[in-house]
Amino acid sequence: MLLGILSDSHDHLDRIHAGVDRLVREGIEVLIHPGDIIAPFAAKAVLDWQGPLHVVYGNNDGERNGLKVLLPQIVDGPLLVEVGGICISLDHYPPDETHPPIENVRAIIYGHTHQIVNETRGGVLHLNPGECCGWVTGKPTVATLDTDNMHVEIVPLD
Q1: CA distances (Å), 121 to each of 105, 124, 125, 127, 148, in order?
Q2: Of the candidates 43, 10, 21, 42, which has an alpha carbon nearest to the alpha carbon of residue 130?
Q3: Three-state DSSP state, 61
Q4: Are 67 and 47 in contact (CB under 8 A)?
Q5: Helices (H), ranges, the chain
Q6: Which of 8, 24, 73, 79 has fewest C-beta within 10 Å?
Q7: How many CB atoms lie within 10 A of CB 98?
Q8: How many structural domains are present in the chain?
Q9: What are the tens digits of pLDDT across the range 79-111?
Q10: For the domain that residue 60 is a member of, what is the CATH number?
Q11: Full residue range of the structural domain in which residue 13 is found
Q12: Spatial distance between the Cα atoms of 54 and 51, rounded to a whole number of angstroms
């Protein structure tokens, strides 16, 4: 199964639309957003995706009630997601002692740092797709994850 991961979109509507459109063209079956959508108007852009969506709150998601109305599945992480025959720990924050990931998973997907991470540690994929918005690094990216072979592709938006 092909997953699309779009994180830290920070109200950047053009980049959210571009990211979702690009992931749709890549053939994704599920969309994952590890937080920092920010406002309900930006959540509407994420909802351009009509398929399954897994999403967690980020530290900058200020209007949580409004986001919850549009995205009833949104929760604080970590969240266990079972897709494509694998279990994923989904959180906004990178795993550490204050934000431990869910145990016994094949992948840990997170955002927050706006920095791309794509590495396997102890048989577990650690994936941060970077920032969709491009505000911090100037390099907007999204990612795909093929759960059949655990192949990750980092997809630039510019």
Answers
A1: 12, 5, 6, 11, 18
A2: 10
A3: coil
A4: no
A5: 13-26, 40-46, 64-70
A6: 73
A7: 6
A8: 1
A9: 999 999 999 999 999 999 999 999 999 999 999
A10: 3.60.21.10
A11: 2-156
A12: 10
